[in-house]
Design goal:
Helix content of chain A: 25-40%
Oligomer: heterodimer
CATH class of the largest domain in chain A: Alpha Beta
Low-confidence stretches of chain B: none
Number of domains of chain A: 2
Shape of chain B: elongated
CATH topology of the largest domain in chain A: D-Maltodextrin-Binding Protein, domain 2
Structural class of chain B: mainly alpha
Shape of chain A: globular
CATH superfamily of chain B: MetI-like
Mean pLDDT of chain B: 90
Number of helices of chain A: 17
Largest interface: A-B, 24 and 19 residues
CATH topology of chain B: MetI-like fold
Radius of gyration of chain A: 26 Å
Distance between the termini of chain B: 25 Å
Number of strands of chain A: 20
CATH superfamily of the largest domain in chain A: Periplasmic binding protein-like II
Number of strands of chain B: 0
Largest sheet of chain B: none
CATH architecture of chain B: Orthogonal Bundle
Structural class of chain A: alpha+beta
Mean pLDDT of chain A: 87
Helix content of chain B: over 70%
Strand content of chain B: under 5%
CATH class of chain B: Mainly Alpha
Radius of gyration of chain B: 22 Å
Number of helices of chain B: 11
Low-confidence stretches of chain A: 16-49
Chain lengths: 536, 274
């Protein structure tokens, strides 16, 4: 008996010892690579001589680093790799970036951009006007999202100038080119493995390694044009789960955490190492209603909208982390939000009446209505996991709609799957969370989602009046007329009950105080910037 | 009289048997026990702490946690019992066929079984559930696919042992038909061992189902299911710990009861223990 205990003890001690050795082994390895900051405090001081590094916890949706695929260029811009001709500052104002200045002809058909001199790509190559032209041409050739931004007739180089000749007038060409889709990359290098190696761009950092589900490591761009880059290496670690991300920040595993929400505030209440910023964002959360299915019936869509108590969702369920929605453009942008009339606001009684009118009756007594032809009505609502509030909206909607008898089935998938489902139109409702002023103005956003022939409009929405107004908007320069037009478009979309506008979120940014220069941008294309440094 | 005598002799079995029946009653009478409708979302009462009107607090959507836990017993118990029954029947049948007939059939069935156990169980179940799409029935199928092998292997080895007995040979010689041999002479001699295994498995299976739901491959919202409730509560761990506490306690209690019951059944039935 005694012998047994001794044996067990020995085994126990041995196990502990082996584990300890393994753990230190791993720790040693990862600090060599500079990726792990579990022991970042010590590492920070150790490294200060030869190289500083931080880790940022992000939610990533990029399968690859090919900028023309989906919205992956956003990731490249956020990670401080790619830059555009123009950019947006902390107030959302457009400022020069790779172009020093620009001007346009009266009719908005010709735009001339004067490119900055002395800019180099991260491989040392000169960013010549020809290189910029080649880069933009590559984007235009490869991305199907370009037509919604502008319709290019010709692109010519004139000295240090780049001249865009358009087929359709565009009042906001510089804003369009500030969308990360049009980031400038060096096309002279071999791009056969760009998916994993990333493009060679002009940003403060360049890709060292990339793994879609794990992390993207970027290193200082030695040739950066806008001053010395403060950090040697930054790891952008994918921590898709909100709770895990919050815990990682608490333990110091990451230094900055993106996309944390109101419910995380309480976790940092007494933690004075963490700085919390917030911003009434320009993001809108909404759900497409696929009019190729059961939702082609306006009455059903109206009933659906009237069944949703969005004010309660935002105030109670999200603890005020969002402003309730009704229109495409949030009140943070001055497009007359309060003047827009929402005839489909919360009203369960009229929702029920509408269902009845439309012939949606509960014939089998299961508490849910059937289609007028008697077949069961079950709406599939596709949501994705990396943004916690989407699940809250969807579940709340499911509960509210149960009250009025509409059966909604939630289908939770990854963001990548959601993109595929959207492209193939396999949904009744599909959640979407997007920046409304991606070009500094809602025009492109409206066009991309509600123009009848836009490739991204897979919900089958089409209204000739909206199309006409959008075309008119594109050619209008006058600010007040533009506002008028945007409001008319919004009103049309709302009257058509085309989309469920849930709310406009407040975004938070949590960062460790040992990192300085962390700012929030209304256009959230910029996460890792040249301003982010370690506190001295 | 005999029954009482038996129960008195096996105190542990009696205790956990009663508790298990209690759990089943909770499942059956959930509508009477639960103070609220588990799906009824009162959104103005979001995340209320335990106490007052809501004994165990409310979840994000203002649903009563206690009612959801009580209704969760239904989901978990029904699914677990179905699962155990399915793997018991399927596994035993295949095992008996493989063991009795041998040859090609044996080779085929046992190689499939070998394939199944060469993957980590839950990981394969996740893959299967992921392919089938998330819902409770698919979760049961996924776990059944990876768990039947245990019963098949056990049944096969038992059959091989029983087949060597003289009474089987006697039955064959006297012209008893094969189905009769299987049902009359072989099954009764092995069924106790299999029942012991099944009883001991209930707790494990319940945990596996809850794990799948926790990972999002089992029950889908708004079904009250413990694993799913744990997952939903995870986000609010700091703010509303009761969202995880109560479903967690429920899982522990029920799993312990069924594990202990399984143990006591084994103590009573398993001849090897003597």
């Amino acid at each position: 008996m005694k012998c047994k205990i001794v044996k067990k003890l020995t085994i126990g001690i041995l196990t502990v010892a082996v584990t300890a050795v393994l753990a230190t082994g791993c720790g040693g390895n990862s600090s060599d690579a500079g990726t792990e900051s579990g022991d970042s405090e010590a590492q920070g001081t150790l490294d200060s001589g030869e190289g500083k590094s931080i880790t940022i916890g992000v939610t990533s949706f990029a399968d690859t680093l090919e900028p023309t695929e989906q919205y992956f260029s956003w990731v490249i811009s956020r990670y401080g790799i790619g830059e555009c001709l123009a950019r947006f500052d902390e107030k959302g104002e457009m400022v020069p970036c790779l172009a020093e200045s620009w001007e346009n002809s009266e009719d908005g058909m010709t735009w001339t951009f004067k490119l900055r001199e002395g800019v180099k790509f991260s491989n040392g190559n000169e960013m010549t006007p020809e290189a910029v032209k080649a880069s933009l041409e590559r984007t235009i050739e490869k991305s199907d999202r370009v037509p919604e931004f502008f319709d290019l007739s010709s692109l010519t180089v004139d000295g240090q100038n780049l001249i865009f000749q358009l087929n359709r007038a565009n009042a906001n060409m510089a804003g369009s080119l500030a969308d990360p889709l049009f980031l400038i990359m060096d096309t002279s290098v071999d791009d056969s493995n760009i998916e994993m190696e990333g493009p060679v761009c002009t940003g403060p950092y360049a890709v060292e390694s990339f793994s879609p589900t794990d992390a993207c490591v970027v290193v200082k761009n030695e040739y950066y044009w806008d001053g010395e880059v403060p950090l040697e290496r930054v790891t952008l670690k994918c921590v898709d789960d909100q709770t895990t991300r919050s815990m990682a920040l608490q333990t110091g595993e990451i230094d900055i955490a993106y996309n944390l929400k109101t419910e995380n505030l309480v976790e940092f209440e007494e933690n004075d190492e963490i700085e919390i910023q917030n911003l009434q964002s320009l993001r809108s959360t909404y759900a497409f209603m696929n009019q190729n299915g059961a939702l082609k019936d306006l009455k059903l869509r109206q009933a659906f909208l009237r069944g949703l108590d969005k004010e309660t969702y935002c105030a109670n369920l999200l603890s005020g982390g969002a402003t309730p929605g009704k229109a495409p453009v949030p009140p943070t942008l001055d497009f007359g939000f309060d003047e827009l009339k929402d005839e489909n606001s919360y009203n369960p009684e009229s929702a029920k009446a509408l269902l009845q009118e439309g012939g949606y009756l509960d014939k089998d007594g299961d508490g849910f209505v059937e289609m007028p032809d008697g077949s069961p009505l079950e709406l599939s609502f596709v949501i994705y996991t990396s943004r916690e509030e989407l699940g809250v909206y969807a579940q709340a909607a499911q509960a509210s709609l149960k009250e009025i008898g509409i059966n909604v089935k939630l289908n939770t998938v990854s963001y990548e799957t959601l993109l595929d489902m959207r492209d193939s139109g396999q949904y009744d409702l599909l959640i979407w969370n997007v920046l409304v002023a991606n070009t500094g103005d809602p025009e492109n956003y409206l066009r991309e989602n509600w123009y009848s022939s836009s490739v991204n409009n897979t919900a089958g929405y089409g209204n000739a009046e909206v199309d006409r107004l959008l075309d008119e908007l594109a050619a209008t320069f006058d600010e007040s007329t533009r506002k008028e037009l945007v409001m008319q478009i919004e009103q049309q979309i709302m009257d058509d009950a085309a989309t469920v506008f849930f709310g406009y979120e407040t975004t938070y940014l949590f960062s460790n105080k040992r990192v300085t220069g962390v700012h929030m941008y209304p256009m959230d294309y910029y996460w890792l910037t040249k301003d982010i440094a370690l506190a001295e | 009289m005999k029954v009482i005598q038996f129960l008195k002799e096996h105190r542990q079995f009696t205790l956990f048997g009663v508790l298990a029946i209690g759990v089943m009653l909770v499942a059956v009478f959930a509508p009477f026990l639960a103070p609220k409708d588990p799906l009824d979302a009162v959104m103005s009462d979001s995340l209320l702490p335990p106490g007052g009107e809501y004994l165990c607090g409310t979840d994000k959507l203002g649903r009563d946690v206690l009612s959801r836990v009580i209704y969760g017993t239904r989901t978990s118990l029904i699914m677990t019992l179905c699962l155990v029954l399915v793997i018991f029947v399927v596994g035993t049948t295949l095992g008996v066929l493989a063991g009795y007939f041998g040859g090609m059939i044996d080779g085929l069935i046992m190689r499939i079984a070998d394939m199944m156990i060469s993957f980590p169980g839950l990981v394969l179940a996740i893959a299967i559930a992921g392919m089938l799409g998330p819902n409770m029935v698919n979760a049961v199928i996924a776990i059944a696919v990876v768990s039947w092998t245990k019963y098949a292997r056990l049944a096969r080895s038992l059959v091989l042992r029983i087949r060597k007995n003289v009474y089987i040979e006697a039955a064959v010689v006297t012209g008893t038909t094969t189905p009769k041999i299987l049902l009359r002479y072989i099954l009764p001699n092995m069924v106790t061992t299999l029942i012991v295994t099944a009883a001991a498995d209930i707790g494990t299976m319940m945990l596996e189902l809850a794990s799948l739901s926790f990972l999002g491959f089992g029950a889908t919202a708004p079904t009250p299911e413990w694993g799913l409730m744990l997952n939903e509560g995870r986000t609010y761990l700091a703010k509303a710990p009761w969202l995880m506490t109560y479903p967690g306690i429920a899982i522990i209690i029920v799993v312990v009861i069924f594990n202990m019951l399984g143990d006591s059944i084994r103590d009573i039935l398993d001849p090897r223990q003597e």
